[in-house]
Amino acid sequence: MKSLSNWRLVVIILSSIILLNGCGFKDIDKRFFVVSIGVDLAKNSSKKYLVSLKFAIPKASRDSPTEFEIVSEKADSISEAVRIIKTKVDKEVDFSHAKVIVVGEEVVKEKGNAGIYYWFTRRRDIQAIAWVAIGKPTALEVLKVKPKSEFIPSNALFLSLGKDGSETPYVISEFLFDFKYRLIERGIDPMLPIIEAKKDILEINKVGLFNKSYQKLALNPEETKIVSFLRKREEKSANKITKGKIVVVIDTHKVKTKYKIHTPKGKTPYIKVNVSLEGTLEEATRRVPNEKLSSYEKAAEKTLNKEIRNVLVKIQKANLDPIGFGLRYRSRHFNNDDWEEWKRIYPEIKFKVQTKMQIEDTGLIE
Amino acid sequence: MNRYFLYLVLLNMIVNVIIFVPKILIEYRYNGAVMGVLIAIPIGIALNYFYSTAINRFPEQGLPEISANSKHRWLKIIHFGSIQLIWFSAGLITLVGFIDILVRFINPEMPKLALLVIYLAAIFLIIQLPTQRVVYFMEIVLFFNTPLIAFIIFKAFANDYLSWDSMLEVGTHIFERPSIKSIAAATYCFSGYSNLIIFNRVINGKLKVLNFIAIFIFGVFNLFTTFFIPIGFHGSDGANEYLYPWISTADSLRLVYSPIERVIFLFLMFYMSITLISVSVHWHVAYELIKGTFKEKVSKKQNLLILSIFSGASIAGVIFLNTLLLNKVTVYWMIVRLGFEIVLVAIFFIWARRRSV
Amino acid sequence: MPSNNVQTIRDHLLNMLQQPEDMVFKENHSKEKYMEALYIKSICDEAILHDNILKPFFEITGPEEFLNFLQSNPKVSEYEDEQKALEELLRGVAILFYQDFVFLFDCKMDRNNAVMDTTVETTIQGPQAGFSESLPVNLGLIRQRYPSTALMVESSTVGNLSKTRVMILHDTRFTDPDTLKRIKKFLANVDIDMFQSGEQLFDSLRKSNKALFPLMLVTERPDRVAVNLSMGKVILLIHGSSFAVILPTVMKDLMASMEDIYQAYWITKFLKVLRYTAFNVSLILPGLYVAVTSYNPEIFRIQLALSIAGSRTAIPYPSYIEVVLMLFMVELLTEASIRLPKAVGPTATTVGGLILGQAAAEAGLVSNIMIVIVSFVAISNFVVPINAFSFTIRVLKYFVLLISSLFGLVGVVLGFFLVLAYMVKLDSFGEPFLTLVQSKPGENSNK
To answer: Within this chain, do residues C316 and C355 fall inside the same structural domain, yes or no?
Structure first.
């Protein structure tokens, strides 16, 4: 008898819920998935931003590639723009698959736009593992690019920013949560990859360095590679080494970086950076005998030492810290004013770079 | 080694994410949370040890059975009543907090009450089971979920974006004066033992030292994970900005080769059942204690009354407590809980010694 | 001449029987002796009667010697009372009236004693023979496989009208006496008029008479019975049924196939994992589909989300109707293929499954992915080795589907755990139905 009355109760509850309900139930085909979001500065308008959403249009048949639609709107804030865009499309706008956020070059160079970065982290439906990047010339241009190999809109971007597609040290991809982390954390500064739209191709090989509010410096591809080494995220790279008239290219498959901050009393503080690389010689203008490999290693070390130091000094001159030296300093010092100390130290700190290159072989032939 | 005892403690350790423990700890990260955590560990272990050895003198008996022939009926009612209140509110905070999380992350358009209904239905089914069965169910839930959480934690530790420097930076604030709030929050991880008040019914045999060693190891690891992983992901300066540091941390993990790419969903699905069993365990204790205060067997009407009080309180909780308020309430609740727990353990320990001598 | 007493008994019995067509009442005379035999020829083996009684009757000359012969014959028992004699007569016993004595002679005809092949619980390897429909033969089959002095056989009757004989077998060394007591008490209280087969007990087991889970295992395999005996279970053999009932039954037993002991260790483990996975899949997959497509499409990868959205573009109604429609169709197919004659069954399933599914997708009634899911669910359902349990899952998935249509992802998880909690709540004669670590029978006392 008891279980019977329980069941009756359950039925009553369930039916009342059915009457109450109907909320939140929205079929997948009634949703319009945003795959990437672009933010630019609005031109010739009183409004501040131009927000573009790239929607994927699902296709019933598997034969044709999925198409996309870009809807843009000018507004003073992203929320406003999204509200207006909602009135322009027939289905519910769903941000849950927005995996790439592209911010136009003009936006990042301008001060006072940090608010829009927070908008993304504040929204529950935008994933924290969305990639953030800078779009060049504008974010909209980047969204418009449709590479031929692409079957799903923006998939090319997903693949090249994520490491599941191409692996290269020239792409420094950045997740939204990490971007926010760097925006706030004292002692480490944000950096974003720069995506250049070139007709049917997207070129990602530069990185923009931020202070806490805007992009201060853009690095060229080679410098980007060095930053990538220092970040210990990517191990495959090609390094061109010139020794006399001979040019060799070393393909690395292992890069290890360590750094330590030394603050000896009375002397200038310095950062010791140790980079050790392992790789194979991939290309050379002349035959390279195996006995002479060590000399090439020396040459490579010398070149890399210089390159790395140059990049570090360049970043230091701009008073930026994308590697996180400041954070390292803070984490090793127990006093409470370590951050103020570091701000004093950093501009005059010296870099001592020690590279160790090991060429394992010269490929299949000598 | 008694596994049921371990489950009870483990359950509280896992569920602390919902009951704002990481949020409280991270808030005081520069103001004594690190020291607070370190102090909480010996306190937690000591409470564990004293209470479990005391109640261990009464094998396979819960508090109602132990005090069944006690003559001071009013004392008993006050005693039981206060314990019930603490246990019930522990379950309530977990439930309200988790429903808030669900509405925020899973079903943004669903009314909170609808979610409460299904939770209450499941909880009421479970709390009315015999204690032995509740433990069986707990075991099954943990069996389903523990591999998953272990995997998520492993993924978090192995993640490239986990910044050890940020964690160390917080670690350098170890010598701050510990705050009572952080101690209270951190001891919550250990307070699973107190469910023995009822669940001692299923524990036969002596608890061995190995149990406490296991609790120590799990506890340290758990506190470290709860406190430091969100800091490693969101920064020593930024982590406190998040409302639910751990949920946001789960959202920051990505499984490249899994069919579900976003860990947050795995994480929340996992916590749906953990919350269910955690609330059920707490409320089962409260329910059994209420039943213990009655002299005779509980009639059907009384039973219904108890359940409707439970549901009334949780409906009120869901309606009146928004996240920020709940967060504030929880902080004070933690302190009250810690004080109450210490008093309870002390009294019980002395009483048990006297009685058995 | 037979004495007065015997004569009254005889007359009384004849009166009670109302003279059916197949009743035989025969008087036998020899020089010195006179004997009457009463039996029902349709259930008696007349050849046995002839060989064991009539032949000696005419061969043994002395009346005293024949009486001795009768009394020493193992198949002959003494008359006790009228009621019992009548019952026995209806089961195929001949009643002999000789001098001042009344004897019961067991000459039951065992029509259904052919041992049948297993058809429900098939295995690839291991014994292939099942039970017969005859109680003594079945008992013999079990004794052959379980030659133990500890094997205890008791018998009782169940059924208000049918008075079906039920044998209770257990191994005294392993069986928990409490469990045995509960089972006997339960059997004594069963209220069924016509008791034909063990499955009828399913409903009687629950106090409310509405059972969803099989809390007993009905099997056609003597080897399973033997194995279960050694694990301390109690076996019921029912007269006229080629299925034995194993009590108490827990989830683990319902998920075990006899194949498990005929395979290598890791293969068994793998198969078990496979079965439990199938159980979970068929329970939650339809609900999960609804929850994920209609509440949380962000769980999918974008690629999958788009392809599901694409295949659903032509579907005019919400996802749960789509699921219910397809599930309903599969249920019909399954039912139809059971009812249909064996020769037509597979054809119907193929035609229905393949063509209907394909056509439904083409017509835009259901999405392609839905068809994959529904067939997945149906196949997983058949993986569960005990048929009665697989029926349970068939029903349960609708419960999970309902809850997940209402609550989304929360509904899937909580629906699943509600089912689990309900299973934990159940017990079979004091044995908890579902625990993670199943204790040995008799080890845990019921509260």
So the answer is: yes
Q: How far is A244 from chain B (nearest CA, A)?
A: 39
Task: Supply the mean pLDDT for chain A.
Answer: 84
Chain A hits for C318, CB-CB cut-off 8 Å, are: 25, 27
SS3 (DSSP) at A132: strand
Q: Read off the pLDDT of residues C386-436 as tens digits, 9 standing for 90 and up.
A: 888 888 898 999 999 988 888 888 999 999 999 999 888 888 887 888 887
- Note whether A327 contacts B161, CB cutoff 8 Å: no
Q: How many CB pairs under 8 A join A and C?
A: 78
Q: How far is C230 from chain A (nearest CA, A)?
A: 35
Q: Do C436 and B102 touch (CB under 8 A)?
A: no
Q: Which of A17, A25, A35 sits opposite C295 (nearest CB)?
A: A25
Suggest the residue from A14, A20, A25, A157 to mutate for an interface test with chain C (most C CBs closer than 10 A): A25
ipTM here: 0.91
Q: Which chain C residues have a beta carbon less than 8 Å from that of A22?
A: none
Q: Which of B194, B160, C17 is nearest to A177 (CA)?
A: B160
Instruction: Indicate the domain borders of chain A.
Output: 28-219, 221-366
Q: Is A23 on the interface with B (CB under 8 A)?
A: yes
Q: What is the DSSP string of B16-72?
A: TTTTTHHHHHHHTTTTTHHHHHHHHHHHHHHHHHHHHHHHTTSTT--HHHHTTT-S-
Q: Does B323 touch chain A (CB under 8 A)?
A: no
Select from C222, C249, C276 the last residue of a domain. C249
How far is C-alpha B227 from the chain's CA centre? 16
Structure tokens at B116: 């409460």
The shortest CB-CB distance from C306 to any of A61, A152, A158 is to A152
Whether residue C224 is predicted with pLDDT greater than 60 in this model: the reply is: yes
Q: Give, rounded to a whole angstrom, the gap between the first and last alpha carbons of chain C.
A: 65
Q: Angle C82-90/C4-17 helices, nearest 10 degrees? A: 50
Q: Does A18 touch chain C (CB under 8 A)?
A: yes
Record: contact C302-A152, CB cut-off 8 A: yes
Cβ within 8 Å of A, B 4-63: none
Judged on CB neighbours under 10 Å (0-12, 13-18, 19+), B140 is buried
Is C199 inside any structural domain?
Answer: yes
Hey, which CATH number is domain B3-356, 1.20.58, 1.10.240, 1.20.1740, 1.10.30? 1.20.1740
Residues C73 and C149 in one domain: no
Strand segments, DSSP code E, in A174-214 are 191-198, 201-210
Residues C366 and C289 in one domain: yes
Looking at the partner chain, which of C411, C422, C447 has a beta carbon nearest the beta carbon of B132?
C447
pLDDT at residue number C270: 92
Same domain as C242, residue C289:
no
Query: pLDDT tens digit string along B198-211?
Result: 888 888 777 778 88
- Asked if the structure places residue C114 within a domain, the reply is no
Contact state of C294 with A127 under an 8 Å Cβ cutoff: no
CATH fold, domain A221-366, is GMP Synthetase; Chain A, domain 3 (3.30.300)
User: What pLDDT score does C312 carry?
Assistant: 84
Range of the structural domain that residue C193 is part of: 135-249
A64 vs B192, residue with greater confidence? B192
- Total domain count, chain C: 3
Tell me, what's the pLDDT at C223?
A: 87
Q: Give yes or no for A123 touching B (CB within 8 A).
A: no
C257 falls within a domain: no
State how far the Cα of B58 lies from the Cα of B205, in Å rounded to an integer: 10
What one-character-per-residue DSSP string does A31-68 give?
EEEEEEEEEEEPSSSSSSEEEEEEEEE--SSSSSPPEE
Q: Which region among B21-30, B52-61, C221-230 has the lowest average model confidence (pLDDT)?
A: B52-61
B1 pLDDT above the threshold of 60: no
**What ranges do the domains of chain B cover?**
3-356
Among B103-107, C184-188, C345-349, where is mean pLDDT lowest? C345-349
CB contact under 8 A, A181 and B121: no
Residue of chain A minimizing CA distance to B175: A334
Convert the pLDDT of each residue in B240-285 to its tens digit.
Answer: 888 888 998 998 888 888 888 888 888 998 899 999 999 999 999 9
